[in-house]
Each structure stands twice: as C-alpha cells, then as structure tokens.
C-alpha cells in the first residue's frame, strides 16, 4: 500500500513498534515494489490503516512469537515469560535477565533461524457464509458544520469556517488524522463551489478549477474515539468518511444564508443568483 500523502508509512511504523514492543526507531519500513510484491490494489476506500494496519499487526504478532521462542533459549525461561520492551527482551518480573533485540536477531542468524513472517488480515471467517456473495454494510459516524459568507449582489461565496467531528475509532496518529480531515474538507469545498466537468467545454486543468491555499477556511477538527472491534488498536477508516459531509454542509449553509435551496453543484455565482431569484430573494 503506497503512501501518497495520507501518512500510511508513519502509521504502519507506529503499529509495528507498538505491537512488537520496541521504539519506532527500531522499525525500518520498506516501501512496496511492484516488481517483487503482489498486486494489493490502491490504498483507497478508507482501508489503509484498517486493513493494511491489521495485516501489519498480525505479522508483527507472529514475529513477536518467533523472537520470544528464540530469546527464551538465551534467557533460559519459557517463551510465555518473555517480554519485549525498550528494544530489549527480558524475563517478566526480572529485569536483570535481559538481552538486546539485536543480539537475539544475531543469534537467530547464527542458528539459521528465519526471521521472516507474514500476516493476513481477513475478517471473512467472522461472518456467516452464504450461497451467493453478500455484502455486510459498515457505517461511519461524523458531522460537519460550515459557516459561509454570500455576496447577494454577485452570488460569490466564501467559506469562512468548518467544524468537522468524526468517530475515528482510535486515533493512531492524531496529527495525521487531523490532516486527513482538513484535506477532506478542502476537497468538499472544491466539489461544493468550484469543480465541474462540462463535456465539450472543459478541455483540461486550465479550465477545471480547484481550491487553492487562499480558499482554505478555518477548520476545527474534533476527533471522537469509539474503538472498533476488528481494526488495529480499535482504528476505523477515515478518508471518505470525512470527504462526504463536507460539500453538503457548505451547500446547506449557502441555502440557509440566501433563503433558497441550491439544487445543483458546484454552487457557482450564477447558480446562487438563480436560486435567489427563484426563491423570491432580491
């Protein structure tokens, strides 16, 4: 799952470090190479942290068991008594009996023991099997409130503030989650006010308008954490969840400001003025 700006690489390192019980500095992420890895598809559909993160956690859990088995021989204790913390492997309740994680890896290398593991995150076994393929709906919870200024003479709209609250399950990286929501708000702003493809008229990006930094409103993000049952450490998907309510919130704010319903997006100045005329506004 390539990271193209949404913070996947950072989150995967965090999940691996937390599951293994080591510092993030001890984790080195190797990006996927399409020449050597299977086709996993794009990290879309809000599935990167949830699905890829789930696979990472399961793989690292298996690695933890392998390390515990090897370390137990070095520390002369059962594998169940081995604890990984602060880049060291120690006997639970006896910190004096410990060995560095690098030393365990070196010993495994010397003995020819594999340190390679795989992890699969597949929830199908948790759902009943049917004769024909069926889909189980999953829901996300969030709400946006938008404040806008409308020039009733020209129909121009400026979004001044958006408050976005989302149930993220567990915020693995709160800063990344906030950035994801802020980006989604701007995408919604583009859909609500600017972006439109007109067949035969729109010829390229020169006449397909998108928001710039100047159009950014004040954005207040509220992260609500109600952990999921299956997601890694309780995480839930977030990407599309934050994109969907942004445009409707902005368009509804415009409709309320002018006293007439906007029925078509983007809400261009011409459409805003037309809605005002049809609504009897002057």
Features:
single chain; 282 residues; alpha+beta; Aldehyde Oxidoreductase, domain 4; 2 domains; three-stranded antiparallel β-sheet; three-stranded mixed β-sheet; 6 strands; 35% helix
Structural commentary:
This protein is α+β, with helices and mostly antiparallel strands. The chain folds into two domains: 8-122, 2-Layer Sandwich (Aldehyde Oxidoreductase, domain 4), CATH 3.30.365; 142-278, Aldehyde oxidase/xanthine dehydrogenase, molybdopterin binding domain (Aldehyde Oxidoreductase, domain 4, 2-Layer Sandwich). Helix content is 35%, strand content 15%. It has seven helices and six strands. Strands 1-2-3 form a three-stranded antiparallel sheet. A hairpin with a 2-residue loop joins β1 and β2 (88-91). The model has no long low-confidence stretch (mean pLDDT 87).
Kindly summarize this structure in a few lines:
The chain is an alpha+beta fold and 282 residues long.
Radius of gyration computed on alpha carbons: 25 Å
The figure for the number of domains is: 2
* Bulk shape: elongated
What is the distance, rounded to the nearest whole angstrom, between the alpha carbons of the first and last residues?
A: 53 Å
What share of the residues does DSSP label as strand, in percent? 5-15%
CATH architecture of the largest domain: 2-Layer Sandwich
- Low-confidence parts lasting 5 or more residues at pLDDT below 50? none
| Structural class estimated from helices and strands | alpha+beta
Q: Give the full name of the CATH homologous superfamily of the largest domain.
A: Aldehyde oxidase/xanthine dehydrogenase, molybdopterin binding domain
CATH topology of the largest domain, by name, is: Aldehyde Oxidoreductase, domain 4
């Amino acid at each position: 799952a390539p990271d193209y700006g949404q913070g996947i690489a950072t989150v995967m390192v965090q999940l691996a470090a937390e599951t293994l019980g080591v510092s993030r500095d001890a984790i080195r992420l190797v990006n996927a190479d399409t020449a050597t890895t299977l086709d996993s598809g794009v990290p879309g559909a809000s599935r990167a942290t949830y699905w890829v993160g789930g696979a990472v956690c399961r793989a690292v859990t298996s690695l933890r068991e392998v390390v515990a088995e090897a370390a137990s021989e070095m520390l002369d204790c059962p594998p169940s008594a081995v604890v990984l913390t602060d880049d060291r492997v120690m006997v639970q309740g006896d910190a004096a009996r410990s060995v560095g994680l690098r030393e365990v890896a070196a010993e495994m290398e010397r003995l020819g023991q594999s340190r390679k593991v795989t992890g699969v995150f597949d929830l199908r076994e948790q759902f009943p099997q049917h004769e024909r393929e069926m889909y189980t709906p999953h829901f996300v919870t969030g709400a946006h409130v938008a404040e806008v200024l409308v020039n009733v003479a020209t129909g121009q709209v400026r979004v001044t503030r958006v408050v976005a609250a989302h149930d993220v399950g567990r915020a693995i990286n709160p800063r990344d989650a906030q950035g994801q929501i802020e980006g989604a708000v701007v995408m919604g702003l583009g859909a609500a006010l600017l972006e439109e493809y007109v067949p035969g008229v729109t010829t390229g990006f020169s006449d397909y308008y998108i928001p710039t930094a100047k159009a950014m409103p004040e954005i207040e993000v509220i992260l609500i954490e109600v952990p999921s049952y299956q997601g890694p450490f309780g995480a839930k998907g977030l990407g599309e969840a934050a994109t969907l309510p942004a445009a409707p919130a902005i368009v509804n704010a415009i409709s309320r400001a002018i006293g007439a319903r906007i029925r078509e997006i983007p809400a261009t100045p011409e459409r805003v003025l037309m809605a005002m005329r049809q609504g009897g506004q002057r």
